[in-house]
Amino acid sequence: MEMPTNWISRTLEPHLAPNSPLKLFPIWLILGPRQVGKTSLLKHCSASNRQYISLDDLPTRRQATESPEVFTQNIKTPVLIDEIQYAPQILSHLKLLADERRDPGCIWLTGSQNFEVMRGVRESLAGRVGIVNLLGLSDEEKQLATENVQTLFESILETSFPHLFNVRELDERALFLNSYLQTYVERDIQALLGVQKRREFEVFLKMCALRTGQIINYDDFARDVGVSASTIKGWLSVLEDSFIIRLVHPLHSNRTKRLIKSPKLYFLDMGLAAYLGGWLTVENLLHGPLGGAAFETHIFGGLVRHCLHNARPVEIHFWRTRDGDEVDFIVSTSRGVTPVEVKLGIPSPRDLLAPGRFAEPNWRVGVAISAVTLRSKALAGTTLCDGWMLGSPLDLSFLD
Fold first, then answer.
1. What is the tens place of the pLDDT at every residue in 216-251?
2. Is 0.85 topped by the overall pTM?
3. Phi-psi bin for 195: left (phi > 0), alpha (psi -120 to 50), beta?
4. pLDDT for the residue 199
5. Which one of 76, 202, 288, 292 is separated from 84 by 20 to 30 angstroms, measured CA to CA?
6. 3-state DSSP helix/strand/coil % of the chain, to nearest 5
7. Exposure string (b/e) for 43-65, b if CB count within 10 Å is 16 or more?
8. Residue 118 backbone phi and psi in degrees, to 5
9. What is the predicted pLDDT for the residue at 180?
10. What domains are there in the chain, each with its CATH number?
11. CA of residue 239 relative to chain centroid, distance
């Protein structure tokens, strides 16, 4: 198998080692959006004798979908099968192959569409597959070290795609991102939805970018795009299944009945949202109307990456009352529950809710992430008020 060059180390690498917890499973599945390095990572971690099969190749895909039994009979393990969502017909046959071989990780799979892949996995591979997620590059993987928010926002505009790492030329970025979006709409969206309203869907994508970090009003959204509210809900579900966005739902609580019930929308890559929204320079993004939401969205993506790239499932909610009291994120992992606030400027204790208003007794200390800590690193970790400490956007280890 050909190995990737110019390698950027990924946090997930140690979790793909033979002695990792994945050793319990004969099949390993890595899920994530297109062009974030799933195949490159697995090739980097592969032994030279692992067979590589790409279902992006049309003749190969045709054989897998039309004759899945014959196709799997010709597979020699260990094997890496790329883009499994294109041929879910082979999953039941891979189950038989895994039961026959039983070697840990003898079958590696990648997938870019969560819904299609997971439906087949639930039906065919229950108990036989270990699942991990890979998103784009985190700030840690970029080895980002800066003392000013302008450099951080420049890195945001580079996006998290490995192909755009350290690419500062605007035309090069635009060419890649335009091609990415065209491919995404033409291949993935039409495959999932058979979308006929292509123009409306492109408007919908831009409207999503303008709403990142905001509570969704489906009726207003539908009116802006020119489709029904039910269509908006369906299209948002497809974006989630394609790892483009996440809907963050409010945390249910018995402490008050005045909680907001609608979800908030966040892009998993703020750089992609900035491109869709037309904010192409640091000046326009940082000092424009989306500056605070852009920083919050970037931190949200960082929280998700930090957990998933350490093979740790994560649930993120928000807490907000109808009176406007709010906590940006409630992050739940196997390590505990951590409230997180995100501020571009200096957090004021008046803006931080007392834990007794929303938190359970066993929750961890809240962290207010501020860009101020970039130039004043000594401030990170200091106590702001009861139940809250100051955190850096470049250090999310408080989740560990």
1. 999 999 999 999 999 999 999 989 988 999 999 999
2. yes
3. beta
4. 82
5. 202
6. 45, 20, 40
7. bbbbeeebeebebeeeebbebbe
8. -70, -30
9. 93
10. 13-133 (3.40.50.300), 149-399 (no CATH)
11. 11
